[in-house]
Amino acid sequence: LRVNQEEVPENCSSIQDEEQDADISKHRQKIAENKDQMRTNVIQEIMNTERVYIKHLKDICEGYIRQCRKHTGMFTTAQLSTIFGNIEDIYKFQRKFLKDLEKQYNKEEPHLSEIGSCFLQHVQGFAIYSEYCNNHPSACIELSKLMKQGKYRHFFEACRLLQQMIDIAIDGFLLTPVQKICKYPLQLAELLKYTTQDHSDYNNIKAAYEAMKNVACLINERKRRLESIDKIARWQVSIVDWEGPDVLARSSELIHSAELTKISKQGKSQQRTFFLFDHQL
Question: Which UniProt keywords apply (predicted)?
Fold first, then answer.
């Protein structure tokens, strides 16, 4: 800012332009560096949570399942199948996924890591979470029944201490796969935010985000449909002297139910309750 100066040197304007250009260049460089740092943070967060998750799965399989199988007097095969579902398959899958993720991780410059392709390569494998998530409510019911007895509470606590697991109850450990499959789209969305369009991993990250979002949606949709089928089955059983074929033979979802009035030709009216399903009324 020039104050009370009659004459302005001729080269002053060009010096100011050069300084301004240098400032813009520095500012852009700072933004780029900041974005690289943010991308590094997100990549490291993904890697760290993945390693912690594998540790949780290992603890469940080796700390709980292995011990439970030794005590045949306390647990039947059916009970263990209900409580733990297909978590051993998930553990096996996640170990392979982490191994491939580690190969794509750039330790020296984490922001240059290209992990998008790893998600795309394994996207079909994540479908095994569907079975686990659908089974999870039954696992909670079975577990809560057992936990009413002191011997089971003490047994699970002894398993936890023997495996040197963190201080979380068994139901907390069994919830981790459900939380994990929902967390992937959030992590990838965050990574996409700090991945510039000219980054070699941009397109793969974008595709991986959409794919993992679809996996989570598909699992939620299957879960919702199973709950709907269960609801219809319970509803039909509650009706005395049910006649005709099962509703589930044709339909899988109740859309609406309401009271209607039937009026005969003679003018008599009768109350009726109608149920509209996805394929029949």
Answer: Cytoplasm, Guanine-nucleotide releasing factor
Which structural domain, as residue segments, surrounds residue 197?
A: 26-237
Tokens 């991986």 — which residue? Answer: 208
Residue 254's DSSP bridge partners are 277
Q: Which amino acid is at 78?
A: A
Q: pTM of the prediction?
A: 0.74
Same domain, 210 and 99: yes
What value does the CA radius of gyration of the chain take, rounded to a whole number of Å? 30
| Whole-number pLDDT of residue 233 | 83
Cα–Cα dist 189/187, whole Å? 5
Q: Do residues 160 and 265 both lie within one domain?
A: no
The strand pairing partners of 256, in sequence order, are 276
Query: Does the structure show a pLDDT above 50 at 1?
Result: no
Whole-angstrom distance, CA of residue 149 vs CA of residue 180: 30
CA dist., res. 218 & res. 124, Å (int): 12
- What is the tens place of the pLDDT at every residue in 231-274? 888 888 888 888 888 888 888 888 898 999 989 888 889 999 99
